[in-house]
Each structure stands twice: as C-alpha cells, then as structure tokens.
Amino acid sequence: MSKKEILKLSFLKSVPILCSYVFVSMAYGMMMEEAGFHWYWSLFVSMTVYTGAFQFLLITFLSSGASVLTIALTAFFMNSRQTFYSLTFVNDFKKMGKRLPYMIHTMTDETYAINCSLALPEKEKEDVMFYVAFLSRCYWMAGAVLGGVLGQVLPFDFEGIDFCMTALFVIIFLDQWEHAASHRPALLGIGAGILCLLVFGAQNFMLPALLLTSGILFLGIWRQRSTPETGKHSGDGEDKA
Q1: Cα–Cα distance between 208 and 214 in angstroms, integer?
Q2: CB 103 within 8 A of CB 93
Q3: Which of 44, 57, 85, 130 has the fewest CB atoms lying closer than 10 Å?
Q4: Three-class secondary structure of residue 201 per DSSP
Q5: Which of 198, 209, 174, 179 shows the shortest CA–CA distance to 78?
Q6: CA-to-CA distance for 218 and 64, rounded, in angstroms?
Q7: Dmax over Cα atoms in the chain, in whole Å?
C-alpha cells in the first residue's frame, strides 16, 4: 500500500472515533471554560493527559484544589486498565522504534479496539495504528479547543452541562457491565464507593474507595494464582512419593 492509501485507510478506520470524540471533547472544553480555564488550558491538558474520563474528573480536582497525590493516584487507578490493554501490543509497539512512546501515550479504549480489528501486513499495520492514534488525538484536541472557544463567544447557559461527566461514567460502566464475564468487580466498586462515601464524606471518599476496591481485587487475583500453584506442588509431591 502507498502512503496515501494508508492515510485514507487510517482515516476511514478512525471515523467512528471522530464521531464520538469531537462532541465529548467539546463538552469538556465548555466545562473547562465554565470552571475558569480557557481553551488553551483545555488544549494543554489534552496534549499531556489525554484520557477522556479523567480529564472530566480533573476539572473538579482543579476547581476544588485537590492534592497532587490524590490526583496522581486517582489517575493511576482510573487508567490502570490500559496496562492490560498494552500487553496485547507489547511486541507490535516495540517494533515501531521511535513511535513507541507516542503509541503508549495515545492508547485509548477506542484505538485499542481499532488496533485489534486490523488484519494487515506488519509494516502497514504499524503505520495504520500510528495514524489512527495521531488522528484520534487531533480529533479530541480540536473538539476541546472548539468547545472552549464556543464557551467564550456564545451566550450559552452552562447550568447542568457538568452532568455530561456523570453520563460519560454511566455509559462506560454500562459498556463494561455488558462485556464483562463477571460482575463482581463492578458490584465491589459500588459497595466500596457507598461505604467510603458514608465514612469519609462526599469530598474525600473517592481515593479511599479506589484503594479499597483495588486492594480487594489484587488480593483476589493473588489468591486465585496461589491456589492452583499449591495444588500443583501438592500433586508433584504425591507423584514423587
């Protein structure tokens, strides 16, 4: 395939992302403007953070003066799923040389889904993955800037627009619920959130809830992995006997 054909294919593959990113990022830019952060802040955050759900949450953190530790840990736990996504493409990204850091930075749920659907020769697949990631990031940044500018020049009533953040999290939750083999982690998260809300209050419950949920899940994974190993060693001992 020529470079022109690769660019065309990359754009066509990224059209679904375009349709979703532009409007969501416009809402993000408008919310940033409403919180007192102009379009250039929306652009800067989109360039450096580039994780939709957390960018919405970051508005609340920046407005409320949350600690750097709370922001950092919340970002880590919210986006830890990307660690598991990246395992699928460890070898592919390593082969991309100088593009490796960029591919890691721009990995999202949507680009991951597109990458998984590509059935192309190795070099062409690498190029398409790169251009899809690049185009998708441009869509988000353009929408964020456009939303910020519109928030400045148009007489919008922004009351209630922050509900789009709640709607975004609900949609993500429902999507994960539909595709998950087990609903225990989701139910655990709900339970931990309610418990920490009652104990720590609305302003401080999020970080303890994330830590509690992650700790219980890690403990469950550790127990699942250690149990078969114990049985295996036990079986080996019986065979030797």
Answers
A1: 10
A2: yes
A3: 44
A4: coil
A5: 209
A6: 30
A7: 82
**pLDDT score of 139:** 92
Sequential DSSP letters for 180-197: -S--HHHHHHHHHHHHHH
Contact present, 167 and 27 (Cβ < 8 Å): no
Whether the full predicted model's pTM is greater than 0.85, yes or no, is no
The C-alpha angle with vertex 89 and arms to 84 and 94, in degrees rounded to 5, equals 125
Phi, psi of 223 (to 5 degrees): -70, -40
**Amino acid occupying residue 6:** I
Rounded to whole angstroms, the Cα distance separating 100 from 92 reads 9
226: tokens are 């250690």
Look up residue 42 and give its amino acid. Answer: S
3-class DSSP string for 144-156: HHHHHHHHHHCCC
Q: At what angle do helices 68-78 and 206-240 cross, to 10 degrees?
A: 50
Separation CA 174–CA 21 (nearest Å): 18
Please count the CA atoms within 13 angstroms of the CA of 41 that sit on its side-chain side.
17
Between vectors from CA 72 to CA 67 and to CA 75, what angle results, nearest 5°? 125
